[in-house]
Amino acid sequence: MNEGLSSSVAVGVGNVLRHLNGKHPDAVLFLARHAAGASDAIDAELVAVDRYGVDITVRQETGSRTARLPFSAAIDAVPDLQRQLRAFLDQARAAAPDEPLTSLEQLIASRASRPHRRDVPPAPP
After folding, report:
1. What is the number of H-type helices and E-type strands within the chain?
2. Contacts by 103-106 with C-beta closer than 8 Å and gap 24+?
3. Residues 31, 90: Cα–Cα separation, whole Å
4. What CATH number is given for 7-115 in this structure?
5. pLDDT for position 91
6. What DSSP string describes 18-41?
7. Collapsing DSSP states into helix, strand and coil, what is residue 116?
8. Full-model pTM
9. Can you give the pLDDT at residue 122?
10. Looking at residue 121, what is its pLDDT?
């Protein structure tokens, strides 16, 4: 599943896949349709990651297949994976700008609009 990744990174990668598949299946389906070229996908699941890409199982009316989304650069850490997945999401959004935002895009937007703790001025004495 996580070939070529250190065991600690593989654990983090597994957590990312479980989170996305469990909490953001609409975003995974959006990736399948618009980044993996499976416009007729009815369901999708991120199933494996190695240093060079992510595999996504795409279910269509005619059956299932595995699509590969290659990374632009090899990953060595969970933040690398997160950046690559964000790039795939941006690519999919560019291909389908009029589709509703996915739950993951909504989450990203809500986090971007909140001030970071270090940006909040200290309370007056």
Report:
1. 4, 3
2. 103/23, 103/24, 103/26, 103/27, 104/20, 104/24, 104/26, 104/27, 105/27
3. 9
4. 3.20.180.10
5. 96
6. HHHHHH-HHHHHHHHHHTSS-TT-
7. coil
8. 0.86
9. 54
10. 54
